């Protein structure tokens, strides 16, 4: 890809991210579940925005999962276990400016299947 096209795609994602974050915020009872997707892996965090604290996090590199649908299902299942251990049953899904399609949609659906209400 040309550099200008790549910069434009990133800037448009950041604009979408800011629009989303202006409307949602997490608390200790109802944390914001934020997703970051790189070309190689996925990262998920449960964040309490009131105290500015990360309640739970998982890194796809440590689990050796790729940023595809199968990897998203595995990492979401493991993250749901971590959330349940911390007695968090529901959250607000922050797709972080990414389109709700493919990997991001598979991750959200897998969280729901594993008992986390989004």
Verbal overview:
- It is a single chain.
- This protein is α+β, with helices and mostly antiparallel strands and 118 residues long.
- The protein has one domain: 2-Layer Sandwich (Nucleotidyltransferase, domain 5).
- The chain has 4 helices and 4 strands; from the N terminus they run αβββααβα.
- It has a 4-stranded mixed beta sheet with strand order 3-2-1-4.
- Strand 2 and strand 3 form a beta hairpin.
- Helix 3 runs parallel beside helix 4.
- The longest helix is centred in the N-terminal third of the chain and has 21 residues.
- The radius of gyration is 14 Å and the shape is globular.
- The relative contact order is 0.18.
- The model has no long low-confidence stretch (mean pLDDT 94).
Separation of termini? Answer: 35 Å
Q: Hey, roughly how much beta strand do the residues contain? A: 15-25%
Biggest β-sheet: strands ordered side by side in the sheet:
3-2-1-4
Structure class: alpha+beta
Q: How much helix is in the residues?
A: 40-55%
What is the CATH topology assignment?
Nucleotidyltransferase, domain 5
How many helices does DSSP assign?
4
CATH architecture: 2-Layer Sandwich
Q: Which blocks of ≥5 consecutive residues have pLDDT under 50?
A: none
**CA gyration radius, whole angstroms:** 14 Å
Integer count of domains: 1
Largest sheet features:
4 strands, mixed
Oligomer: single chain
CATH class: Alpha Beta
What is the mean predicted local confidence, pLDDT? 94
Shape annotation? globular
Count the E strands. Answer: 4
């Amino acid at each position: 890809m040309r550099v200008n096209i790549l910069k434009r795609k990133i800037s448009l994602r950041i604009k979408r991210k800011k629009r989303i974050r202006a409307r949602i915020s997490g608390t200790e009872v109802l944390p914001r579940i934020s997703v970051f997707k790189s070309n190689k892996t996925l990262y998920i965090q449960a964040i309490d925005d009131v105290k500015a604290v990360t309640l739970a996090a998982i890194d796809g590199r440590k689990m050796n999962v790729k940023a595809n649908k199968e990897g998203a299902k595995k990492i979401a299942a493991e993250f749901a276990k971590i959330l349940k251990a911390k007695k968090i049953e529901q959250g607000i899904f922050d797709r972080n400016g990414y389109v709700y399609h493919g990997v991001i949609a598979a991750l959200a659906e897998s969280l729901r299947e594993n008992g986390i209400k989004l």
